[in-house]
Write a structure and sequence with these properties.
Shape: globular
Largest sheet: 2 strands, antiparallel
Number of strands: 2
Helix content: 55-70%
Number of helices: 3
Order of helices and strands: HHHEE
Length: 65
């Protein structure tokens, strides 16, 4: 999966289930969706910039439930 929008959806879905560090989120999504960690990192940054997710105390979480 290399479509940035699908990666963003996968990240949000994963964060609905549990919190992750940046590293664990990159690894989990890249392993489950057969894409590079770099692509996942770009999607994480886009979601963070858009205010959909936030990074606090070492973990990413959704900003709204």
């Amino acid at each position: 999966m290399s479509d940035p929008e699908l990666l963003k959806e996968a990240i949000v879905d994963e964060l609905e289930r549990e919190r992750h560090t940046h590293k664990s989120l990159r690894q989990t999504i890249s392993d489950e969706h057969d894409c590079s960690e770099e692509a996942v990192s770009h999607a994480i940054s886009a979601l963070n910039d858009a205010g959909v997710i936030k990074h606090e105390r070492g973990f990413f979480e959704l900003t709204t439930d």
